[in-house]
Amino acid sequence: MANTSEQSKSNIDVDTGHDYDGIHEYDNPLPRWWLIIFWVCIAFGYGYWIHFHVAGTGKSEIAELQEQQAEAVKRAANAKEVTDDVLTLLSKDPETTAAGAKLFATNCVVCHGANGEGKIGPNLTDAFWIHGNKPTDIYKTVSTGVLEKGMPAWLPVLGPDRVRTLVAFVITREGLNLPGKEPQGVRVTGGQ
Ligand code: HEC
Predict the structure, then answer these.
(1) Residue 152 neighbours by CB under 8 Å, 6+ apart
(2) 143 near 154, Cβ under 8 Å?
(3) Nearest CA to ligand 1 atom 7
């Protein structure tokens, strides 16, 4: 024992004079490898904090996920798929809705009014729907019509592209609550 303590009392060992049940405490410098890891961790922490929280240059996982979802919907739109997401996306595209407004003026105003407020056909601007207000519901109604009630089927006349464009426009009408034909169908909450 005497030997070891002689050896450890080299010039880098600083004896703190503490002794716990025979365990002697020295105040030696920390190993270099430990210090390197320690400082690298602190530097990384600062970098991370500045990148994600201060400078805002880093994207959060939520933002990345939302971007991926938006990309997926865009791909589906380009592939001309008919889903609620795709139709909702189209309803936010000014070019599509402007084209839809033109198609509506040509084909729909006779029965649904100049602004969708309803005439023979229902008011498309209120919260009441006979055949559902999900974008895909509207697509179905416009495509196949309700022949016995006087709503023509538009898919055979206009084709899928123009029907999608029209539906995008109809989605933008909802919630405008224009005075016109009295409510028909059931009140829907949420959805598009
Ligand atoms: C000849 C008249 C007529 C024309 C033209 C017409 N519709 Fe209709 N539409 C109706 C009638 C009537 C109904 C109600 C059907 C029912 O009572 O089930 C209706 C229902 C609808 C509905 C469903 C409303 C709901 O409450 O569920 C949508 C959406 C719709 N029409 C869109 C269009 C679009 C878009 C066009 C133009 C491409 C169009 N309609 C052209 C008469 C028409």
Answers:
(1) 145
(2) yes
(3) 151
3-state secondary structure of 187: strand
Backbone angles phi, psi at 27, to 5 degrees: -110, 70
- Average pLDDT of 6-14? 56
User: Is the per-residue pLDDT at 5 higher than 70?
Assistant: no
Nearest protein Cα to ligand 1, atom 34: 108
CATH no., domain 65-187: 1.10.760.10
Half-sphere exposure of 16 (CA within 13 A, CB side): 10
The ranges assigned to domains in the chain are 2-54, 65-187
pLDDT for residue 68 is more than 50: yes
User: Does ligand 1 lie within 6 Å of residue 131's CB atom?
Assistant: yes
